[in-house]
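---------- Forwarded message ----------

FYI, see the RNA polymerase sigma factor record below. Original note from H. follows.
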Amino acid sequence: MTATDIHRTIDAVWRIESARLIASLARMLRDVGLAEELAQDALVAALEKWPESGVPDQPGAWLMATAKHRAIDRLRRSKLQQRKHEEIARELEDEQAHADDAHLDALDNPFNDDLLRLVFTACHPVLPTHAQVALTLRLLGGLTTDEIARAFLVPEPTIAQRIVRAKRTLAEKQVPYEMPRGDELNERLASVLAVIYLIFNEGYAATAGDDWMRPGLCEDALRLGRMLAELMPNEPEVHGLVALMEIQASRSAARVAPDGEPVLLLEQNRARWDQLLIHRGLAALDRAQKQSAARGTTPGGPYTLQAAIAACHARAVTAEETDWAAIVGLYGALARITPSPVIELNRAVALSMLFGPESGLAVVDALTDEPALKDYHLLPAVRGDLLKKLERWDEARDAFERAAQMTRNAREQALLRRRAAECEAAAGANDVVIPPSSKRSA
């Protein structure tokens, strides 16, 4: 195995094992920042030793053992809280005395409580959302600071500061490294799911930059969602979120033209949709719906309902076969449990497909003064599309131009301006006066 192959192997092992490693260390040390530092030390040791000695048979167990040794050394050198440190050091030494297979078994346990505690710690409400996202990708996604910065088009020092401040805040606020209970669990779980979906959405429809999509972020969010579904198998909304992401991710190949331009849902080549992801998504949706029914919460929570909407598109072989009546009903159910002008805007699109553009436009026009949509470029974009279908070319052009000015994504901006130009051309064609002689000859 070449040095390059070994480095690639180390990178793959780190992506797989880092979250479990940090989670186990954080439980022992009660300090997420120190846990990550020691895990990084173990990674550095692997980078130094494995190219010479080769990759061990149990790389995850090797990293854990190395990190624990570093933890013991760090605690022995520390003069603060000596008694507590000695107790932890003895605990670590006792655990280290067990066979490496025992460590590997603990690492490979998909229901690892330590990992679940780390999920809820990274998404703790004392942290602002942008810090939760950065810390989640760093601790649970195994991404480097540079990778996170490039994914979100943010300077690397900014991401580094967010992560440092987040860990400092967790320490200063003495956030307990534990699972929330009772009603607090539901509140905190909603925050965890929101962070994962935010990461997915930034990959699925980038808010800024030159690319329509950033598939790497979608993959990271899917990995986090699947992991959470294994850790919390009896939470229907977890499966609902996974179903939603799986089905949406299935369209990725069809959402971008060969030249990088966006392809909208109804114009996509459905033969390019990933059937494996659709199958997985539908299975997760079925699980979410059955669990919701067992709890008496049919038709489900917001992620389950959104997944059901996505499933209507996934089941339609062609755009014309889409069950728009079912989608309108699902958006209505979604609006009842989580009222939102964005949901109402999406319902307007479904209404226009079911009953015609006038019905959708009436709903959209009622949203134009909604403060929450003041900077939401999809409001004028949807309005422009409906006006275009009604052949109100000048109004449609103005709406597309406004939407283009509001978005920060270069690909989306180009698409909207092209649609505005099409409306301009159509308006100009209608303004041409055909001479009487031409009419007679026609």
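H. also flagged this: The longest helix spans residues 3-29.
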